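Reopening this one. Same input as before:
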Amino acid sequence: MYTFREFLNKLRETGDLVEVDDLVSLDLEIPHILRELCYRRGPAVVFTNVRESPFKVVGNLFCSKRRIVLATDGTDPAERIRNFLRETPLLTCTGGLKRLVKSLGDLAKLGRLVPRVVSSGSVHEREYGDLGLSKLPAVRQWPKEPSRFFTMGITFVGSEDNLNFGYYRLQLVDDRRFIVHWMPWRRSRDIAELGREEVDIAVVFGADPITMLMASVPIPPPLSKVLVTSILRGEGLRLVRGREADVLYPADAELVIEARVKLRELMLEGPFGDHLGYYSPVGRYPVAETLAVYGRRDPLVPVTVTGKPVLEDGYMVLFGERVVLPLLQQIAPEVVDLHIVPESAAYMTVVSVRKKYPGQAKRVMFLLWALAPVINKIVIVVDPDIDVRDLGQVMYAVATHVEPKRDLVIVPDYATEELDPSTPTPGFGSKLGIDATRKLPEEYMGKEYPEEAVPDPETVKRVTDLINKILRLYRREETCS
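Same output, byte for byte:
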């Protein structure tokens, strides 16, 4: 599996990476360039001449389906997880590092997936203690944002007993402090608030591409995100212990900020132009104090940007759905496929099921809402013959199989994402489920569902060659004209 730099080299080889030497600013300019390039299906970019920082800045790393495939070296995440689960019970994927080491150690052939804590790594090549946070690549994306934000730093919290990581936006306060936007229903926040007033974290930039992608994927407890990441990498994560902070993080990253979050010291954070294209409201969140900054001698620091879909986070969702699918199928084997719609910023999910009993579609809806409370605002359930990634087929299923009074499920007063602009109370709203499956007799007043019209197979066999001939002639005429 690629390191961060190997992935960049792969992008260069395939023509997916461009280096820009022009002087550019982290304030509004780089974010606007990255958004426009992503909308126009442009390349990943390395900015070598950044006004506010001595470091090179990398953007749009995952801003296409092609680059997601390159990041995984062409391996389907769903298949890799399925192969693991064929040999190992799902419960092995739970617990902290100590439990994982023990459980995987009992399965000798899977020992390569055990996360390893090493004494040092390239992330500790140099200390940047004299460099204030304002010299690091944080961006201000939109005019009404009050400060610059770290947008692609992976926040690690915990140690052997309970390690987790994810993306949380971090607002600069000054050269030593930043605000951690930890929303409710997030596992990292739960770990941080285990009866403490402060907790150590590491903000990591430029981990390997699988770890970077996994940081965006919500893995429901008690499954271990560390182990799922190791499965996808094909080897256990190499972790190093913080030198000033009591936390584990990837040993071979580009840059790390070790910090201590003061959970009771809150500051106003935001507004922030978020992934739906609206400013999220101002709120009070905990402040982190920098303890140390380490990195490579010449770190390349990634940033990402938000705005109306589809931007980089939308493409990363496509990776996440392939990770979640086989795990979901362990709990609900009737699930055939899953698609988290990028244009919806992960608020709409389409899932296909093999239905065997009445009400089964609704069971799957509630399962998705229980596993990931803040996403899946709208869930559409379809039959297995519907391609969940083909919006035309999905809308056909909705049009032909949905009787609104019977098939719409509205769940009021439910946890939602704080960033959803449609809810007047941040983090509290409702869910919508749409059962677009064909109805069983028990769901159809005891009657059989109408028979689908299909062509006569003998007729199809007789005229297929003629149809192809006509199309060939038509394409020839089109070319001549």
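So the earlier flakiness isn't reproducible anymore. For the record, The chain has a mean pLDDT of 91.
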